[in-house]
Amino acid sequence: MADFFIVCEATSQPQVKAIADNIEEKVKENCGENVFHKEGFQSMQWVLVDFVNVVIHIMQPETRKFYNLEEMWSDAVVEEHQ
Question: How far apart are CA 8 and CA 81, in angstroms?
Fold first, then answer.
Protein backbone atom coordinates (compact mmCIF):
# COMPACT_ATOMS: atom_id res chain seq x y z
CA MET A 1 0.00 0.00 0.00
CA ALA A 2 1.28 3.45 -0.89
CA ASP A 3 2.03 6.06 1.75
CA PHE A 4 0.71 8.88 -0.42
CA PHE A 5 -1.82 9.24 -3.23
CA ILE A 6 -1.66 12.38 -5.30
CA VAL A 7 -4.63 13.26 -7.50
CA CYS A 8 -4.29 16.07 -9.99
CA GLU A 9 -6.19 17.34 -12.96
CA ALA A 10 -5.15 18.34 -16.47
CA THR A 11 -7.42 19.86 -19.07
CA SER A 12 -6.06 18.16 -22.20
CA GLN A 13 -4.28 15.01 -23.34
CA PRO A 14 -1.01 16.84 -24.04
CA GLN A 15 -1.15 18.37 -20.56
CA VAL A 16 -1.75 14.95 -18.94
CA LYS A 17 1.31 13.58 -20.76
CA ALA A 18 3.45 16.62 -19.95
CA ILE A 19 2.63 16.38 -16.23
CA ALA A 20 3.33 12.62 -16.12
CA ASP A 21 6.60 12.97 -18.03
CA ASN A 22 7.72 15.88 -15.86
CA ILE A 23 6.96 14.01 -12.64
CA GLU A 24 8.94 11.00 -13.83
CA GLU A 25 11.88 13.20 -14.88
CA LYS A 26 11.97 15.32 -11.71
CA VAL A 27 11.67 12.35 -9.34
CA LYS A 28 14.53 10.59 -11.13
CA GLU A 29 16.62 13.78 -11.12
CA ASN A 30 15.97 14.77 -7.48
CA CYS A 31 15.44 11.42 -5.75
CA GLY A 32 17.14 8.88 -7.99
CA GLU A 33 13.91 6.85 -8.08
CA ASN A 34 12.59 5.10 -11.17
CA VAL A 35 8.90 4.58 -11.89
CA PHE A 36 7.75 1.16 -10.72
CA HIS A 37 4.69 1.11 -12.97
CA LYS A 38 2.81 3.51 -15.21
CA GLU A 39 -0.31 3.17 -17.31
CA GLY A 40 -2.97 5.10 -19.18
CA PHE A 41 -0.75 6.61 -21.85
CA GLN A 42 -2.93 5.17 -24.62
CA SER A 43 -6.03 7.25 -23.87
CA MET A 44 -4.52 10.04 -21.73
CA GLN A 45 -7.78 10.36 -19.77
CA TRP A 46 -6.23 8.95 -16.58
CA VAL A 47 -2.51 8.33 -16.23
CA LEU A 48 -1.16 6.51 -13.22
CA VAL A 49 2.47 6.96 -12.19
CA ASP A 50 3.45 4.52 -9.43
CA PHE A 51 6.59 4.92 -7.34
CA VAL A 52 5.35 2.25 -4.85
CA ASN A 53 5.22 4.52 -1.79
CA VAL A 54 3.74 7.40 -3.80
CA VAL A 55 1.07 6.88 -6.47
CA ILE A 56 0.11 9.79 -8.70
CA HIS A 57 -3.16 9.98 -10.64
CA ILE A 58 -3.32 12.58 -13.43
CA MET A 59 -6.86 12.85 -14.73
CA GLN A 60 -8.92 14.91 -17.11
CA PRO A 61 -11.85 16.67 -15.37
CA GLU A 62 -14.62 14.36 -16.63
CA THR A 63 -12.70 11.24 -15.61
CA ARG A 64 -11.85 12.65 -12.21
CA LYS A 65 -15.48 13.55 -11.58
CA PHE A 66 -16.73 10.13 -12.74
CA TYR A 67 -14.35 8.04 -10.59
CA ASN A 68 -14.31 10.43 -7.62
CA LEU A 69 -11.17 8.90 -6.08
CA GLU A 70 -11.18 11.40 -3.25
CA GLU A 71 -14.39 9.83 -1.94
CA MET A 72 -12.69 6.43 -1.70
CA TRP A 73 -10.16 7.92 0.71
CA SER A 74 -12.54 10.28 2.45
CA ASP A 75 -11.22 9.25 5.87
CA ALA A 76 -7.63 10.19 4.94
CA VAL A 77 -5.98 13.52 5.63
CA VAL A 78 -6.40 15.79 2.60
CA GLU A 79 -4.02 18.56 1.58
CA GLU A 80 -4.90 20.68 -1.42
CA HIS A 81 -2.25 22.49 -3.43
CA GLN A 82 -2.59 24.94 -6.27
Answer: 9
